[in-house]
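Example record used in the benchmark description.
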Amino acid sequence: MIFLSFDIEEFDMPKEYGFDIPFDDQIQISQKGLQYILDLLKKYNCKATFFSTVIFANASKDLVNRLINEGHELASHTYYHSDFENSHLLKSKKALEEEFGVTIEGLRMPRMAEVSDNEVEKAGYRYNSSINPTYLPGRYKKNHISRKYFKSNGVWQIPTAVSTWFRIPLFWLSFHNFPLKIYKWLVKKAIKSEGYAVLYFHPWEFTDLDKKEYNFPFYVRRNTGEKMVSRFEKLLQWIQKNNIKTEVCKNLVK
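Model output (structure tokens):
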């Protein structure tokens, strides 16, 4: 089984590389990518979980309502993408529930940041998918954590997929940079080992990231835009051909 997931947010990543992208552009770029994603998921009858910031959701109500109506799960990516305090856990959950009329069960922190289990449970979440159980210098040091979902202080933890050997993260960057054949092979190995794989991407990957002012390194820009749309469609075709079921994250820990 594969649990497709997407972090839908204001596209503020260029700020990490010194470019102050206007807020309207941040929203519009992510909206454009989300439309591609929803169209492809509908075409191949695949389900996914969308972790949304309140800021993006409020600016994209038609798209968020569409994903809910098409059977996908809406979960929280907190309130803002680049600003966080513990109070945002409950605040974002309530805001999404009140606006879209669904129960928000899941959380993913922006940039997979650490967050207190107690605070997550206190805010009423059932699961947290903010662990990348690998070692990436300057970003994650989680290679000691279980690759499989587990419960911690009353909250289910759903780590994202890594390879069975060397814990190579099977997230968006590896999808962009590995040969697609190798990526699919690693995902299949992970499914065989754990029984499932949680994969995650972002809408802005489906748009043109080659603009010089973004200052993105090649490994971020590689296979984005139209190439990403094509590669992701091939991934969905592979999922369909191999009769691999896709599900929403909340159903992993029912």
